[in-house]
Design brief:
With about 270 residues, this protein is of the alpha/beta class. About 40% of the residues lie in helices and about 15% in strands.
């Protein structure tokens, strides 16, 4: 069968006893990076007594996942096969979903071990009180696609959780300051690792706190819902009209909220100005 196995996102002691047992029985390991997987097995052997007999490692990552599964046959899983991502939970902003779908279609038995996940850890640390949230993962890197995704997320009724790379954190805080300056943002740096840090405040306050060397590392951001978001009612058209956005962007949001055309909403906005 196949076992999807989450790996520590920073602190190796977060590995579970069950994960060590599964690795000890594994015949084949599929992984994002064979070097990372072999290093983890070595560390688990040295520090936590793992004894394994794995000799077959196959690289399965976002760039080759589709091609890899085309060559699979059900008898590949007559052995104990483990899929592990570099860090965290497979299929959550990591490869693995196509492999799970393949197993479902070909009636191959599989299971998923619970384990470390950065977004759940960050939300628990955020101090936000809502029991609901929206997890998005990584925003598009640039351009209108990124702007549109962020604008849409800020209309959500609940807090939004994003992942961000260190070289784009400052950019994201600038974007938030421009279109959601009043929101509270919780930023978690290097979760479970030696340099773990938590910050909370408005985008402007975080920009002042997170500078220089502090920008380095992987980040999880939790953005509070806007005023009246998180209640039973979604954002109103009147609230959209008060957003500090260019008329054309505002018109697109109004069109989604009202069902009218973007052109009609834009013309109404111009008349009101």
């Amino acid at each position: 069968m196949l076992t999807l196995l989450p790996t520590p996102i920073g602190n190796i002691e977060d590995i579970s006893l069950r994960a060590i047992r599964v690795l000890g029985a594994a015949d084949v390991i599929l992984c994002e990076d064979t070097r990372v997987a072999k290093k983890l097995l070595r560390l688990l052997s040295e520090r936590h007594g793992l004894v394994h007999h794995v000799t077959e490692f196959y690289s399965l990552h976002s760039h080759n996942e589709s091609e890899f599964i085309l060559n699979l046959t059900p008898d590949f899983f007559d052995r104990n096969v483990v899929y592990m991502s570099d860090a965290g939970m497979p299929c959550i902003s990591d490869p693995g979903a196509l492999l799970v779908e393949w197993c479902q279609l070909h009636e191959v038995a599989y299971t998923v071990l619970p384990g470390p996940s950065a977004f759940a850890t960050a939300y628990a640390a955020s101090g936000f009180l809502q029991s609901h949230f929206t997890f998005y993962g990584f925003l598009p890197h640039k351009g209108r696609e990124r702007e549109s995704a962020l604008e849409q997320l800020l209309l959500e009724r609940w807090p939004v959780i994003l992942y961000e790379a260190p070289h784009r954190l400052e950019k994201l805080l600038n974007e938030l300051q421009k279109i959601a300056a009043e929101r509270t943002v919780f930023a978690a740096k290097e979760i479970t690792k030696r340099h773990e840090r938590f910050f909370k405040g408005t985008p402007e306050e975080l920009k002042a706190q997170i500078t220089g060397p502090l920008l380095k590392g992987e980040w999880v951001l939790v953005i509070s819902a806007g005023e009246r978001m998180g209640e039973s009612s979604p954002i109103t058209q009147k609230e959209i009209e008060t957003l500090d956005l260019p008329p054309r962007q505002k018109a697109k949001l109004l069109a989604k909220a009202s069902g009218r055309s973007v052109k009609e909403c834009y013309e109404d906005l111009v008349k009101k100005e």
